[in-house]
Specification:
heterodimer; A: 250 residues; alpha+beta; D-amino Acid Aminotransferase, Chain A, domain 1; Dna Ligase, domain 1; 2 domains; 6-stranded antiparallel β-sheet; 6 helices; 31% helix; globular; B: 383 residues; Rossmann fold; 3 domains; 7-stranded antiparallel β-sheet; disordered C terminus
C-alpha cells in the first residue's frame, strides 16, 4: 500500500515548476498578494487573476482588468464591478481574502469557442511507478463567471472538438496535443522530485490567442469526473484502492 | 549475405538518420574504426530511419555497407547496442519519442544525450555556473508583452528575438529603436526584410512571425569583424575512443558582408585568423586560445551534468572587440562543414572516427557467445 500526497499551496508548486528550465516558460508570472504587487502586476499586464494560495474549486477567484484610462473592472463570482480604482480593487480583495494568503497571476486572454473562453484540464496519473497523461478535456467558462471549474458550472467539451471549434488546423491540434502530453509528463516529473508521494495531478492549462499553453495551476488531488476516459477511470480506481494514507503538505 | 558472419562478437552501431538525408551519411560505413586489438568484438554499422523500426519484434530494417560487393544492402538487424542520432528530431515527434523511450528501457546508450537544444533551457542551465555566466549574453524569455521588449531595448540599443528551437539562423528578428521612438525590425526570409512599427504593434508582429514558437530576447554581441563581415568560432568538441574530451578544431567563420549570421561563410584555422588575419602577437593568441579552451570545457561538462553524456558537440562562440568570449549556441549534430573547410580532410576524418569509437566504448556489451537472447535472428536482403 502506498501513500498519497496532497500539496495545497499554489506558490510552493509554482516555485518548483519555475526552477525547471524546460517548464518556466509555461508559467504565468505569479506573485503573493500585496497592494504594491497588485499595482505593479496591473500596470505590467493590465489583466490579472487574484486567487487564494490554498483554494479549491475556483472559489474566491477574482479577475481584474485595468483599462487605458486607469480604471479597473473587477469580475468576482457572477458580479462585474466597473470603474473602480486600483485601491478599491485591493480593498475588495482584502475583504474577500480575510487575511488568508492570496496570489496574483498574470492574466491570459484565452482562446474562445463562440466567444466563450475555455481552458484545458490535463490529468496525469501514476498508478504504478510511471507518470502517464491519461485524459485531456476542454472546459468552457461557466456562464457569468470568471472561472471554468466544472463545480462552478463550467461545461466540458471533448478536446479535439474544442480545438476544431476554436479554429485550430488539424496539424496544429496534433502538435498541441503532443505538447500538452510533454508538459503533463514534465510537470509530474518536476513536482515528483520535490514531492515523491504524489499520485494524481490535474493541470489547468490555458491557451492564449496564439494557442500557446500556460499552466494556471496544478491540482494534486484533482476533482474526479467519471467517464472521461476508460483508462483514467481504471487508474483512478487503482490509485484509490492502493492508497493507504493521504497526507497534506502545505 | 548475413551480416553477423563476422569474426568475433558483433557490436551493432545503429545510426538513426532522416528519411531524406541518407546520402550524407553513407561515408560513415567506410570509416576505419578500431575497438582495440585485443578485443574480439566486431563493429557492425547500419543506417536506419524511424520508419524502419519494428518495436513489436524489436527489429530494424537497416542499410549496411558490404565491402566485398562494394555496395549498400538492406538487412534485418536486432536493436543496436548503441545509437548514434544523426536525425534532427522534433521533441514532439511521437514516433521518435517512443523509440527513445524503448531504447532507454532496453538500456541502449545514445552517443549524444540530446539531439537538439532549446535556447532558453540551455541559457537557464548554463546560467547556474558562475564561471560560465559572464560569457552568456543577457537573455529573457518573451512572454508576449510589449514591456518585455521595451525593457530590453532600454538597456541595449538593439536586441535579437530568437525562436527557442530555431536553427541555422532562421527565425531570428532584430529590433532596434529609432530616434523618435519608432522601432525598426528586420528578419531574413529568403531575403532581408527591414520594416518599422510602433511599440504597441510589435507584439502582434512578433506573434505573426514566430507563431506558436517560444521566443527569447537577447542582447547583441559586438563580434570581431573584418570590415563589415562578422566572425565567430565553431569549436568541434568530441569524446574519443577512450572517453577523453578532444577539441578537434576551432574554425573561425567569417560571414558575408552585413549578414547577421556566419553560416556558409569563409573559414580559417584559429591560429591563422587571429595570428595572420587580425595580426595579433603570438602571446595574445595563446592566451585567447587557453581562455576559450577552458570555457569550452566548462560548457561541455556543464551540459553533460544536466542532460547526460555527449559524444560530440559543436559549440559556437563569439569573441567581442575586447577579446571577451561569448557563448552563442550549441549543436549536437554539427555538419562539420567549417572544420573541413578550415582544417581539411584529416581533421574531418578524425571528427568522424571519434564519435564512432566513443559509441563502441559505451555500447551495451553483448553477452559472451554472441547476440542478446531477446534479439531476433539476422537475415539480409539485397537492395
Amino acid at each position: 500500500m502506498r501513500t498519497y500526497q496532497v500539496v495545497r499551496s499554489k506558490t510552493a508548486k509554482t516555485g518548483v515548476l519555475l526552477k525547471d528550465p524546460g517548464l518556466d516558460r509555461y508559467i504565468p508570472e505569479t506573485e503573493l498578494y500585496s497592494r504594491e504587487n497588485l499595482a505593479r502586476m496591473l500596470n505590467k499586464y493590465k489583466y490579472v487573476y487574484v486567487k487564494p494560495d490554498c483554494g479549491r474549486g475556483g472559489n474566491k477567484v477574482i479577475s481584474i482588468n485595468l483599462d487605458d484610462g486607469g480604471s479597473c473592472s473587477i469580475h468576482y463570482d457572477t458580479r462585474i464591478l466597473k470603474g473602480k480604482t486600483v485601491a478599491e480593487a485591493a480593498a475588495l480583495v482584502e475583504r474577500i481574502s480575510a487575511g488568508a494568503p492570496f496570489i496574483i497571476q498574470q492574466g491570459i486572454k484565452l482562446l474562445t469557442i463562440n466567444n466563450v473562453p475555455f481552458d484545458l484540464r490535463v490529468n496525469v496519473q501514476k498508478p504504478f511507478n510511471r507518470w502517464e497523461v491519461t485524459a485531456m478535456i476542454a472546459r468552457l467558462r461557466a456562464p457569468g463567471k470568471a472561472v471554468t471549474n466544472f463545480c462552478q458550472g463550467g461545461r466540458l467539451v471533448e478536446l479535439k472538438q474544442a480545438f476544431t471549434l476554436a479554429g485550430l488546423k488539424p496539424q496544429a491540434c496534433d502538435r498541441l496535443k503532443a505538447l500538452l502530453t510533454f508538459i503533463g509528463e514534465k510537470t509530474a516529473a518536476a513536482l515528483c522530485r520535490k514531492y515523491p508521494h504524489l499520485r494524481e495531478l490535474g493541470l489547468d492549462i490555458g491557451l492564449d490567442r496564439q494557442a500557446r499553453p500556460w499552466i494556471f495551476e496544478v491540482n494534486t488531488r484533482p476533482q474526479y469526473v467519471r467517464g472521461l476516459d476508460e483508462k483514467f477511470d481504471r487508474y483512478h480506481r487503482l490509485i484509490e484502492q492502493s492508497t493507504v494514507k493521504k497526507y497534506q503538505t502545505k | 549475405m548475413p551480416v553477423a558472419k563476422t569474426a568475433g562478437r558483433p557490436v551493432y552501431l545503429g545510426v538513426l538518420i532522416s528519411q531524406n538525408n541518407l546520402n550524407r551519411f553513407t561515408h560513415l560505413a567506410k570509416i576505419p574504426i578500431s575497438v582495440g586489438e585485443s578485443s574480439d568484438t566486431k563493429p557492425v554499422l547500419y543506417l536506419f530511419t524511424l520508419k524502419d523500426i519494428d518495436s513489436e519484434k524489436l527489429r530494424i530494417r537497416g542499410l549496411f555497407y558490404d565491402p566485398s560487393q562494394n555496395r549498400w544492402n538492406s538487412g534485418i538487424f536486432p536493436f543496436p547496442h548503441v545509437i548514434y542520432m544523426r536525425k534532427i528530431p522534433d521533441h514532439l515527434d511521437k514516433k521518435a519519442e517512443d523509440f527513445l523511450k524503448l531504447a532507454e528501457k532496453m538500456h541502449i546508450p545514445l552517443v549524444n544525450a540530446r539531439s537538439t537544444f532549446d535556447k532558453w533551457e540551455l541559457y537557464r542551465v548554463l546560467c547556474t555556473s558562475p564561471q560560465i555566466k559572464p560569457h552568456l549574453p543577457d537573455t529573457r524569455l518573451y512572454r508576449g508583452q510589449e514591456s518585455d521588449i521595451s525593457s530590453m531595448l532600454n538597456r541595449y540599443e538593439k536586441i535579437y528575438l530568437k525562436a527557442c528551437r530555431g536553427s541555422r539562423g532562421r527565425e531570428v528578428m532584430k529590433v532596434s529603436r529609432l530616434p523618435g521612438g519608432l522601432l525598426e525590425y528586420s528578419y531574413y526570409d529568403g531575403r532581408l526584410f527591414i520594416q518599422r512599427a510602433n511599440n504597441k504593434c510589435l507584439p502582434r508582429i512578433v506573434a505573426n512571425f514566430f507563431g506558436q514558437e517560444e521566443v527569447i530576447i537577447q542582447q547583441p554581441i559586438d563580434l570581431i569583424s573584418i570590415g563589415d563581415r562578422k566572425a565567430d568560432l565553431r569549436a568541434e568538441m568530441q569524446r574519443n575512443g577512450e572517453g577523453l574530451l578532444e577539441i578537434v578544431g576551432m574554425p573561425v567563420r567569417v560571414g558575408h558582408a552585413r549578414s547577421p549570421i556566419t553560416t556558409h561563410a569563409a573559414c580559417y584555422r584559429f591560429e591563422d585568423f587571429f595570428g595572420h588575419v587580425l595580426k595579433l602577437d603570438q602571446a595574445t593568441v595563446s592566451t585567447l586560445e587557453d581562455k576559450l579552451r577552458r570555457l569550452l570545457g566548462q560548457i561541455y561538462l556543464m551540459l553533460e551534468q544536466h542532460y547526460g553524456p555527449f559524444g560530440e558537440l559543436g559549440i559556437d562562440i563569439g569573441v567581442d572587440r575586447n577579446f571577451h568570449p561569448w557563448f552563442i549556441e550549441c549543436n549536437a549534430q554539427s555538419a562539420k562543414v567549417s572544420l573541413m573547410n578550415a582544417y581539411g580532410g584529416a581533421a574531418l576524418l578524425r571528427a568522424y572516427i571519434n564519435p564512432l569509437e566513443y559509441a563502441l566504448k559505451i555500447a551495451a556489451p553483448p553477452p559472451p557467445g554472441g547476440q542478446r537472447s531477446r534479439l531476433a535472428p539476422i537475415r539480409s536482403t539485397s537492395s
